[in-house]
Amino acid sequence: EPEVTQTPSHQVTQMGQEVILRCVPISNHLYFYWYRQILGQKVEFLVSFYNNEISEKSEIFDDQFSVERPDGSNFTLKIRSTKLEDSAMYFCASRGAGGINQETQYFGPGTRLLVL
Amino acid sequence: DAKTTQPTSMDCAEGRAANLPCNHSTISGNEYVYWYRQIHSQGPQYIIHGLKNNETNEMASLIITEDRKSSTLILPHATLRDTAVYYCIVRAYNNAGNMLTFGGGTRLMVKP
Fold first, then answer.
1. CB proximity list for A87: less than 8 A, separation 6 or greater
2. Using the beta-carbon criterion (under 8 Å), do B43 and A108 form an inter-chain contact?
3. SS in 3 state form for B29-77?
4. Do B97 and A4 count as a contact with CB atoms less than 8 A apart?
5. How many of the other CB atoms lie within 10 Å of CB of A81?
6. Which strands sit side by side in the sheet containing B18-23, from one edge to the other?
7. Which of A36, A70, B59, B98 is at a distance of 20 to 30 A from A25, taking alpha carbons?
8. Collapsing DSSP states into helix, strand and coil, what is residue A60?
């Protein structure tokens, strides 16, 4: 069964450093998402991406964050200058288009980011 | 998207049916009920969704009341691996890139 994959599974970085989290969505999906979950808290939406542009973003997704689909398969989240409070699990999700049964979002296993 | 209310936690004996309720009294006509679960910090896993008819798949059944103000997710024979946080999410169907809004969910503990 097709699945969303994410790399790396864990990332440790120093405050102020740039990180890039990578995702490979399900191959025929057209909508892509990033969510995050700080330890012990709710899953929070960050950004959605369709047709090579951001379609929605939350207040969390400030100028330090950016997303890109550099090729036909990868979807990346970049944090330019990490802060301690960016420590969280980051989940990528994707979904298809064209009818309600294509609207289900499928999530990857997540990248655990720890900022020291 | 309409707000949902779920119990914070529930227990279920292994092998028994787990019935997880969700209230969504402000649901509107074009909004679907989705259920996801999250097993110990893994990515949320899609379970099932429905509009007004009851739905069943290999994982679970979804019972939606006639007035659509509440629903119940049923895991017919819960196993220890079903221990997870279960999220009931209501969202409209459209083709925009709408996000999912996760609440606190119900922490289901399946006990031997």
1. A38, A39, A113, A114, A115
2. yes
3. CCEEEEEEEECCCCCCEEEEEECCCCEECCCCEEEECCCCCEEEEEECC
4. no
5. 12
6. B18-23, B70-75, B61-64, B55-56
7. B59
8. coil
d(CA B81, CA A109): 17
Q: Are A111 and A93 in contact (CB under 8 A)?
A: no
Residues of chain A contacting B6 with CB distance shorter than 8 Å: none
- B19 to chain A, closest Cα gap in Å: 22
**What is the phi/psi pair of residue B38, to 5°?**
-135, 115
Confidence (pLDDT) at A70: 86
- Structural contact between residues A94 and A25, judged by C-beta atoms closer than 8 angstroms: yes
CA dist., res. A24 & res. A36, Å (int): 17
Joined tokens for residue A24: 């490979």
Q: What tens digit of pLDDT does each residue of A90-102 get?
A: 999 999 876 666 6
Kindly provide the residue ranges of all beta strands, DSSP E only, lying in chain A, ordered along the sequence: 5-7, 10-13, 19-24, 31-37, 43-50, 53-57, 65-68, 75-79, 88-95, 106-107, 111-115
Token pair in block for residue B63: 């019972």
Contacts of A58 in chain B (CB under 8 A): 99
Contact B32 A45 (CB under 8 A): no
Cβ of residue A34 closer than 8 Å to a chain B Cβ: no
